[in-house]
Specification:
The protein has about 270 residues and is an alpha/beta fold. The chain has one domain. It is about 25% helix and about 20% strand. The longest helix has 19 residues. The radius of gyration is 18 Å and the shape is globular. It starts with 6 loop residues before the first strand and ends in a 9-residue tail after the last strand.
Length: about 270
């Protein structure tokens, strides 16, 4: 079996919108559609057609943001544990998160992940948002042909790669009882702001997502303010990895420490990765 068939992707989402297409397309190309597993939260969720991926629906429970995050992490952890009966590596992400391999590392994403020896590794988190003069995203065109800037954001440096059963914490931000290591060749692109910071959907507002969305909008504001003088990403990445690895909160030692948002120009070599 090739490396591609020994790695799978897993996510759980409610009302994913166009992110489902992006997620299934990205990980389908990387690992094969038959190795992608998407759990939809609610019988009311439309099933994507013609993807060749594994799609299932679970009954929805209306919960607060915090309780919903914990429930989703528990379901994803249980599903990942079951998938290890057939796979060597499970990549578990939110529906708007795309794991990429730096082309400078050589090889492809699946082969690189097969070389991971720890129980899990993190990827450096980068928010993707519109820069000056960048309009609405064209769904028919590659994302990174349309977005030139990003924000290095410790909140999205997440341990999304597991090589054995683990228990993820809420939001998949940590692996319980496990240390974390940032793989220097992996990046997690967060697309929640790819079309800017829009209004919060009524269902999410009722669950308490408003303050979270307001904090998230800070990344988009930082990008617009800093794009004109943004350095190339390569000048920032290693420093960001060091700071996030060393400065950890005492109350959450197995998560990266908060670091200031760093606006960057995305590497030109990444343009065709997403």
């Amino acid at each position: 079996m090739s490396a591609r068939g020994r790695v799978c992707a897993l996510s759980m989402a409610r009302n994913p919108g166009d992110f489902a297409r992006l997620w299934l397309g990205h990980y389908g190309r990387a690992f094969g559609a038959e190795n992608c597993f998407l759990i939809l939260d609610g019988a009311d969720q439309a099933l994507p057609e013609g993807t060749g991926a594994n799609i299932l629906r679970l009954p929805h429970r209306a919960l607060s943001r915090e309780a919903g995050d914990r429930r989703r992490a528990g379901i994803v952890s249980d599903m990942a544990a079951a998938l290890f009966a057939a796979y060597d590596v499970v990549v578990a992400t939110d529906i708007d998160e795309m794991l990429i391999l730096d082309p400078a590392a050589g090889g492809d994403l699946a082969a690189h992940l097969m070389g991971v020896r720890q129980a899990g590794v993190s990827a450096l988190g980068i928010d993707i948002a519109p820069g000056p003069g960048e309009g609405a995203l064209d769904p028919a065109a590659p994302v990174l042909h349309q977005r030139r800037f990003g924000v290095v954001n410790a909140r999205y440096t997440k341990p999304v790669v597991a090589t054995r059963p683990v228990r993820w914490g809420a939001g998949l931000h940590r692996m319980k009882g496990r240390n974390f290591r940032i793989d220097p060749a992996l990046y997690l692109l967060h697309l929640g702001l790819v079309d800017g910071a829009g209004p919060v959907a009524p269902e999410l507002a009722a669950q308490g997502w408003g303050p979270h969305a307001a904090r998230r909008a800070g990344a988009a504001e930082a990008l617009l303010a800093g794009a004109a003088t943004a350095p190339e990403g390569a000048a920032v990445f290693e420093l960001a990895r060091r700071r996030q690895s060393l400065w950890r909160p005492i109350y959450a030692w197995n998560k990266p420490g908060r670091d200031r948002l760093r606006v960057i120009r995305l590497p030109e070599a990444w343009r065709d990765l997403l």
